[in-house]
């Protein structure tokens, strides 16, 4: 399959790479150390159209295709994985849900401020007792007058402490399975929406991850996204696209790990010569290169399938599984190549090592990806 990029996509990639190197690289390490949310960076990204990448121009977005979106996330993640995941959740899971399933009134109300960077989106599916088994969620929405009353808790909500709106999933029907789950557009300023403190995470320290409690939250009827009781298929559909975004994030981190290792290998001397001349180091570098190339092909293949409107469940799970594992392997090898310096926060590979690990967990663990893949293969 030919993944020759168009002239416009090559220009886009260079523009985003230049932006990342100029605006993100200089502040990424400090943002990680200080757990500082990159508001200024996101404001600059919004001016480039990166807060509404696939949102149509009619709603204030850039109207790009999904492969262009993947190229953007890849380049951002090479500089800062925290910034990449903020953009991924906002663009795909939040804006994408409204664009694909919202009515015209909802699109006009929510997408323009999101695309301009005025309002950041979150995705509120996971609960303290419902992670991989998302269908077992207990957050409940009940009819109340001409709207809804919602009570419950949501866990590990990316962007949750900074978001202006969120895509919220709650049970509106009886039972405990996926039937009866509905999706809502939640204004995070609504009374009763209570974000908790920032989670103390291993990595992605410049991103926001919180628990959100919902106490008698009253939403109007038009907050319902899609059809009542059909929220779970909506969630699964959007997670397929989100997984491609996480694959792109992982790919960017793997590329950064290789880039840093090549640079360090040429500069670091031991026993009178650069360590890159030693066979053991060369073996690590070549393995990292293979991981990066394979992850890129799988990620681009999934993105290209999305552009063509094809079924992407298997391609997305495959790309996410492989790219996340590739990122972890490359980060581990990069730390090893750097030796003691790889364990020091002054060096970028230490941050990549911590950031990469979560790509095997969020938006579906590696075990869930294998389950999804197996089901798709056996149904063929």
Task: Provide a short characterization of the protein structure.
The protein has 380 residues and is an alpha+beta fold. Helix content is 52%, strand content 15%. A 4-stranded mixed β-sheet has the order 1-4-5-8.
Descriptive overview:
The structure is a single chain. The protein has 380 residues and is α+β, with helices and mostly antiparallel strands. It folds into three domains: 7-120, Butyryl-Coa Dehydrogenase, subunit A, domain 1; 122-229, Beta Barrel (Butyryl-CoA Dehydrogenase, subunit A, domain 2); 233-378, Up-down Bundle (Butyryl-CoA Dehydrogenase, subunit A, domain 3). The protein has ten helices and ten strands. The protein has helices at residues 7-34, 39-47, 66-79, 81-101, 104-116, 231-267, 279-307, 313-338, 348-356, 366-378, and strands spanning 121-124, 140-144, 147-158, 165-171, 181-187, 193-195, 209-220, 224-225, 269-270, 273-274. It has a four-stranded mixed β-sheet. It has a four-stranded antiparallel β-sheet with strand order 2-3-7-6, with helices on one face. Strands 9-10 form a two-stranded antiparallel sheet. Strand 9 (269-270) and strand 10 form a beta hairpin. Helix 6 packs antiparallel against helix 7 (279-307). It is globular. The mean pLDDT is 96.
Structure characteristics:
alpha+beta, 10 helices, Butyryl-Coa Dehydrogenase, subunit A, domain 1, 3 domains, four-stranded antiparallel beta sheet, Butyryl-CoA Dehydrogenase, subunit A, domain 3, 380 residues, Butyryl-CoA Dehydrogenase, subunit A, domain 2, 10 strands, four-stranded mixed beta sheet, globular, single chain
